[in-house]
Every structure is written in structure tokens, then in C-alpha cells.
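Shipment paperwork, digital attachment
Item: protein structure file
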Amino acid sequence: GTSEATFKALGGDWKRVEIWLDQGQPFNLRNVQVDDGSAIKKTLVTQRRWITYGSSITHAGSAKRPSQIWPALVAQKLDLHLTTFGFGGNCQSEPMIGRIIRDMPADFITLKLGINSHGGALSARTFGSNVIGLIQIIREKHPDTPMALVSPIYSPPRESVKGGSGLSLQDMREIHEGIAASCLKYGDRNLYYVDGLKVFGPDELKFLPDELHPDAEGQFAMAENFAREVFERFPS
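Attachment content:
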């Protein structure tokens, strides 16, 4: 269906208006209308820019409202301008996503990779090389931007069980950590490995009703952990 957002009695001064789009629905902007004598312009972004890429866990469809998905909560807490790429079932470290992120302005980049590849879209042979390739594509235009490589969060049925990829989540965490160490060895001084279990681990199991996706309350727990484990490691 079609819906409208209406803003009234804004007064004669410039106002910053934000619309948080429903994370559970597709979106198409049909038009923007202003009253006679009024004007609209693009807001100047003064906040530091954060781009995050991930799966349905990043998409956060279980949140009660779009302003309460965990990336939004982190952005609000740290006063960041957020761009989130959360692709349900389709986070596969794809080169074209790397190109999009590469070409966007960013002060911080986080890549939360692995869970969608567990089922078999990537193999034990290709998973690590795809992650390395994604990082290197982004580094073409963001050579020094602080970037975190975040391994999968807790998911009990997948921790030690090897999926169609031939990898368990435990295997993927070891691969992520090894990639970050190799990047550091070869000169990348601003890539940080973050263990997904510290972002959302066994202590948060009560917020994981399907043993995969944090629920509405879990968004707040994950946001708090992510802000601490990721952003406190970044240069200020």
C-alpha cells in the first residue's frame, strides 16, 4: 500500500527532518511535496559516517521499529551518520557490494560476515578468499579508514556443525582472525578483528528465540556490545 508522512507547523526556520523507513517493508519514494513559499534541501551531514554490511542479523527485522534496529541504536549512541547494508540471506562478501562501499564516503566501516555463507554459497576453499577480496576492493579508496571484520555471532545449531560450506561458525571465526592477522602483517594498520561471540554470545541466548536472530530486546543488548567491542577499538 501507499502511505504518507506529513510534517506541519514547522515554522519559518530550517528544520532537520528524518524519516526512519520500516525495515520490514520494501520502499519506493514517489514524490516530495512542499507548500507554496516553502523550500526543501538536502541536509549537510556533519556527523562521522559509518557503513555496516551484514546479513538479516544486520537487517534486524525483529526490531519493534526502524529506529530500534541495533545499527541505528549504535549510531544514535555514538552520534554517527549510518548507512546499513543488511541483506537477509544474501550477505556473501560480494565484489559489487565492496565496490559500492568503496565509492561511498566513510569514517568507519564494519563487515559482519559469515552466517549466510554457512549453508554453502561459499565453500571452505572460497570463503576466506572472498572476504580478503572484499576488504581489498574497499581499501582501493579507503586505504586508512578504520574497518572492523566481525565474525558470526552465537548460533547454537551452527557452532560446531559444518554446513554446506564445509565450515562451522567456529571455523569461520578462526578464518576471520587469520585474515585480520595477515592484513596487519602486510601493512593494513586499521583493520580490526572482532570476535562475534563478544558482540552476541552465550550470555545473550535468552534474546535468540530462533537460535539465529536477536529479538526486539536483543537489539539493545547487541547495540551495547557492538559499540563497546567495535568502536572502543577504533581510533577516536
